[in-house]
Amino acid sequence: MFNTLAYYSSVLYRDFTAYTSEKLEKMGLHFGLLFFLIYVGKHPGATPSDLTQNLHLDWGHSQRCITKLVDSGFLTKEKVGRRYQLHLTDKGQEAFAVSHQVFFDWDSQRLAVLNEEERQTLFALLQKVARNSRPLPREAAEAMASGGFPKRQP
Hints:
single chain; mainly alpha; Arc Repressor Mutant, subunit A; 7 helices; 2 strands
């Protein structure tokens, strides 16, 4: 149909969003909260300001999402000195594990049609194209520079 990067990026994004939403809806979450959970899971005690800056988000949107996660029992927001710190609750830890694992599961399913050499070539080419794109959130940029996203934590 269309032989453009934009077309294939859109197709893959929609597929990933649908796949992820299906997994998260079972827990009462939606795709838009995925990166909040992952960030706090990887940075316990992060402040709302840290999260907002590092994920390159609008302050108002960030605060609404944090409030929703706190009200839904996924995060705690405790005042320490003059700052608030964010932590995952037990429910949040479970959601973090699912949210983190969904990246690996989706990749595994979608890349099953490629052999190892084809996968390496695909990632090398995507990294080359991504370097010419808008700045990524710091974590993603660091992961890309080191050859990929961090492995799943045990």
